[in-house]
Write a structure and sequence with these properties.
The complex is a heterodimer of chains A (554) and B (356). With 554 residues, chain A is mainly α. Helices cover 64% and strands 1% of the residues of chain A. Chain B is an alpha+beta fold and 356 residues long. Chain B contains four helices and 21 strands. Chain B has helices at residues 2-30, 39-72, 88-116, 241-253; strands spanning 125-132, 135-140, 152-154, 162-166, 170-177, 182-186, 191-195, 205-210, 215-221, 233-239, 266-273, 276-277, 281-284, 290-296, 301-302, 305-308, 311-315, 319-320, 323-329, 335-340, 350-355. A five-stranded mixed β-sheet of chain B has the order 3-2-1-5-8. A five-stranded mixed β-sheet of chain B has the order 4-10-9-6-7. In chain B, strands 13-21-20-16-17 form a five-stranded mixed β-sheet, with no helix packed on it. Chain B starts with a helix and ends with a strand. The chains are: A mainly alpha (554), B alpha+beta (356).
């Protein structure tokens, strides 16, 4: 009786696979489109990062002028944040969330396709500045009044604004879709507190997107009016206030940090239990911590603005420090899950453990930056660059690769090669730390961010060179990954439905899943329905407390 | 069985961890800021050391725990570990731990903040810091309300300015921007403050510090401000009060530059707007004095300077628009010269001057 049978759609007519992918409304195909599209932008923005790091390797301007350098770091930041990390996590969410809640698809499949197709369009618009006199060069934060028509007259900035407004619209549509899906499409038995942690983190993330993105969109439209139609929202000469832009930007921008970190936390919380063969310690506490981070994220934006002299420091300092509490709770939960577990160090697990140890560093430097007197020294230096990369890269990107290795067998029915995966992880981990840890030293010594050049007398040369070497090592680490992808598609080991002994519903269907996902569902009596199913006859380890399995299909 | 098996593993772990600890200690040194050189920054340094110490303990504790767990609890057989879902007591305790840590740090940081942000009642040295794309002007305010005889230092990217201040007394800075947002930052003072263009009637940011030691300290703009952001450097030179007084008197006596304008034959016209010249190629007769009529249409400081190769022939007076200035140029031998804005040496503000 607890088994739900859904009839998979039959193919009524055949069409070419190109047309099929271009017109698909299947959440799984759209998820893969998201991931592939984001990965291409990741490679492009990664090349820009290498350009930036090469210029900074030694003092002097070697092969870029200042304007080109400024365009390179602006586009690097913009693409990485808006066209890689956020959408690739949305892609995994798109693929995995309906499977994990036992749904046949997203609530609004066509809106789902629409919000994906806005992304490449917006990305091309943002990039096309290079074809029309130069891309935006004001940093990904686009601070006014540097970004107004007087100081940045190029059309690149307008294209940036139009492209990102489009991407923002896509995010808002996607958020509505995710929220509707999670609240209305769950399978019978999938109560809120039986949802996998990834679903909880995606739900919280999408609520943040829904509340924060319109504020950024409003700001971008106001800036567009300032630039093109004589507006003066941010122009001090006409009574406007440039700091207002910073308020609007960071009211979006700080929740944005949690938009990219929460789903990665969700991924790690899916992987740790599977590779320790234990439930996540403190499931409910973890859910409440996720919600608490989401709520607090709207009261901390001005910690990016401590040095403006226009914000009430104690309030924002206090709220920022408070975020360390739910984050600390999560860290303890993960540690307790490892403790006395039965740990297998497969590649997804390695990346998940990389997330734990690297995100920790970003968390500690975040608490340092939350103290205004310390922030007065470190703000806008390379310390902030180090901090944000330990969160975005050490956190989210490690989470993305963990997710890739973990769910690749589900998506394509084949397992990525473990040996190549481990080489990828080792190079990635070492390269990441070489590239970004020395940035702490540089920032503490006083090197400002976003400078094209520095004096040989400043004493910053050695660590800059080390950082550049690390950046190239990260680039090299992508090669075994690409080789792995190709080799696996050609001749990869068949995965089967459940290669990792997973806990959640996506492992109860075939790999790859059929259209509309499930022929039948196992009973859902806990947050680990597939674990319950696997251990239903296990006398020594009965199914989870409260998980009464009845009528389970054999 | 597992305990015995764990021993050699532990020793191996220790062998890996010991050099790591040395590395962490070395990194710890590089994690300390520059020697603080002001009264305020010495307090910040103490706060920083405390926060860093707490952070280091958390770092070593958590990373150690993770490494230990990975080694100690590797999967050895098919037996399932205990299925532990949670424990309310433990979870309450570990919610309390970070709460207490951040509350203590918040109190400490707020005390430090109040102390370093305290303002002197009547500081003797008041300097208006005027930031512009892409340099600084330091304008020493005096009491006679006559700006023409004030000491004022303007830098160029090639020759950054020096702010001379006395040690042991509060220095009061008024931070004004002519264009975009900049930030005044001296690493050895462990402080920066944004220099924000404000609309009329709004007070600009201020910053106060008391330098403790004689010396010269490098500083630069810390808020990204456009093309030549990296070249917005300056220095702060701290000296004794007596030396400062002598410097100030000398600077004040020479602070009245008299631009001499004498009309010549050829008149070249250059207009600057949107940080760009309207012309990029000009011609003038050889061996004959001429004048340049330079119009600056925007509220950004510009000038026209003439170079042959890297040798400066002429530096025009800086003008903040809208306004016009006439430069007299002495007779030049035939050849190709470069005219450029000293403040904005970018392609848009560079041109070729042909003398024939």
């Amino acid at each position: 009786m607890a088994t739900t049978a859904l009839s998979p759609a039959t193919e009524t007519y055949r069409r070419s696979w190109v047309l099929d992918w271009l017109t698909t409304v299947d959440h799984k195909k759209i998820g893969i489109l998201y991931i592939v599209n984001s990965f291409i932008f990741f490679l492009a923005a990664g090349i820009l990062a290498l350009v930036v790091r090469s210029e900074l390797a030694v003092p002097g301007l070697q092969f870029l002028d200042e304007r080109t350098y400024n365009q390179a770091f602006t586009m690097h930041g913009t693409i990485m944040v808006f066209l890689f990390i956020v959408p690739i996590l949305s892609g995994f969410g798109n693929y995995i969330v309906p499977l994990q809640i036992g749904a046949p698809d997203m609530a609004f499949p066509r809106i789902n396709a629409l919000s994906f197709w806005f992304l490449p369009l917006g990305g091309i618009l943002v990039f096309s500045g290079y074809l029309f006199g130069g891309a935006a060069a004001e940093g990904w934060t686009l601070y006014a009044p540097l970004s107004n028509g007087t100081y940045s007259s190029g059309v690149g900035t307008d294209l940036w604004l139009v492209g990102l407004t489009l991407i923002g619209t896509a995010s808002i549509l996607g958020a509505v879709n995710f929220i509707a899906t999670i609240f209305k499409m769950r399978a019978p038995g999938m109560t809120l507190f039986r949802m996998p942690i990834l679903v909880w983190t995606v739900l919280t993330t999408q609520v943040l997107i829904l509340l924060a993105t319109p504020v950024l969109a409003a700001g971008m439209i106001a800036l567009f009016i300032d630039r093109n139609y004589g507006g003066s929202f941010f122009d001090p000469n006409a009574g406007g206030n440039p700091v207002l832009w910073q308020h609007l930007f960071w009211f979006f921008g700080h929740p944005e940090v949690y938009i990219v970190i929460l789903p990665a936390m969700g991924v790690v919380s899916e992987i740790l239990p599977v590779f320790t063969r234990r439930p996540l310690f403190g499931y409910r506490a973890f859910v409440f911590a996720t919600i608490a981070i989401g709520l607090l994220s709207f009261s901390v934006w001005a910690h990016h603005m401590f040095t403006t002299g226009q914000v009430f420091l104690p309030f924002f300092s206090f709220m920022t420090a408070l975020i360390a509490v739910p984050t600390g709770v999560k860290m303890f939960n993960w540690m307790a899950t490892l403790w006395r577990g039965s740990i297998t160090l497969a590649t997804p697990m390695l990346f998940a453990l990389g997330f734990l140890s690297m995100f920790l560093i970003g968390g500690i430097s975040g608490v340092m930056l939350a103290e205004p007197p310390i922030d007065f020294h470190l703000q806008d230096t390379y310390f902030v660059v180090a901090h944000l990369h330990y969160v975005f890269f050490g956190g989210s990107v490690f989470g993305v690769f963990a997710a890739t290795y973990y769910w690749f067998p589900k998506m394509f029915g084949r397992r990525l090669n473990e040996r190549l995966g481990k080489i990828h992880f080792a190079l990635h981990f070492i390269g990441f730390n070489l590239a970004f840890f020395p940035m702490h030293f540089l920032g503490i010594a006083g090197m400002p961010r976003r400078i094209a050049d520095y004096s040989p007398d400043a004493g910053w040369t050695f660590w800059n060179l080390v950082s550049t070497v690390g950046a190239f090592l990260i680039a090299i680490s992508i090669l075994p990954f690409l080789v792995n992808l190709v080799a696996t598609f050609i001749n990869g080991e068949k995965a089967g439905d459940d290669p990792w002994e997973g806990n959640t519903l996506e492992w109860a269907t075939s790999s790859p899943p059929p259209p509309y996902n499930f022929d039948k569902l196992p009973p859902i009596r806990s947050e680990r329905p597939v674990w319950d199913l696997r251990h239903r006859h296990d006398a020594e380890h009965p199914a989870d407390e409260g998980a009464v399995v009845e009528g389970a299909p054999s | 069985m597992s305990r015995l098996a764990a021993r050699p593993r532990l020793r191996a772990l220790l062998r890996v961890v010991a050099p790591l600890l040395v590395l962490v200690a070395l990194a710890g040194c590089a994690m300390l800021p520059p020697t603080p050189e002001t009264k305020q920054s010495k307090e910040v340094f103490v706060l920083y050391a405390i926060v860093l110490g707490v952070g280091a303990v958390v770092f070593v504790g958590v990373e150690g725990f993770i490494l230990y767990s990975i080694v100690r609890y590797r999967r050895r057989d098919d037996r399932l570990p205990t299925q532990l879902h949670g424990n309310n007591t433990i979870e309450l305790v570990w919610t309390a731990i970070p709460t207490v840590i951040v509350l203590v740090l918040f109190v400490l940081s707020t005390l430090t903040l109040n102390s370093i942000e305290a303002r002197a009642t009547s500081p003797r040295v008041n300097i208006e810091v005027n930031a512009f794309q892409w340099q600084w002007n330091f304008h020493y305010l005096d009491t006679d309300n006559d700006p023409t005889n004030d000491v004022s230092v303007t830098g160029t990217p090639a020759a950054p300015p020096v702010m001379v201040v006395p040690v042991g007394e509060p220095i009061h800075l008024i931070l004004k921007s002519a264009d975009v947002i900049h930030a005044f930052y001296v690493p050895q003072f462990l402080v920066k403050r944004d220099v924000i263009p404000v609309s009329e009637g709004r007070a600009p940011n201020t910053l106060e510090f008391t330098v403790s030691d004689v010396g010269t300290y490098a500083g630069q703009c810390a808020e990204f401000c456009g093309d030549l952001h990296a070249r917005m450097t300056f220095r702060v030179q701290a000296m004794t009060r007596a030396d400062y007084d002598a410097w100030y008197a000398a600077a004040a006596s020479g602070a009245t530059p008299a631009p001499s304008v004498s009309p010549g034959g050829t008149v070249l016209k250059i207009t600057a707007d949107h940080i760009s010249y309207d012309v990029h190629a000009l011609t003038a007769p050889a061996n004959q004095a001429f004048t340049i009529e330079f119009t600056n249409k925007e509220a950004v400081s510009h000038n026209v300077a003439i170079y042959q190769g890297s040798t400066a022939i002429f530096h025009g007076e800086f003008i903040t628009g809208p306004g016009t200035v006439t430069y007299s140029i002495k007779a030049l031998p035939a050849g190709t010269y470069t005219f450029i804005c000293d403040v904005h040496p970018i392609p848009d503000m560079t041109g070729t001057l042909t003398i024939k």
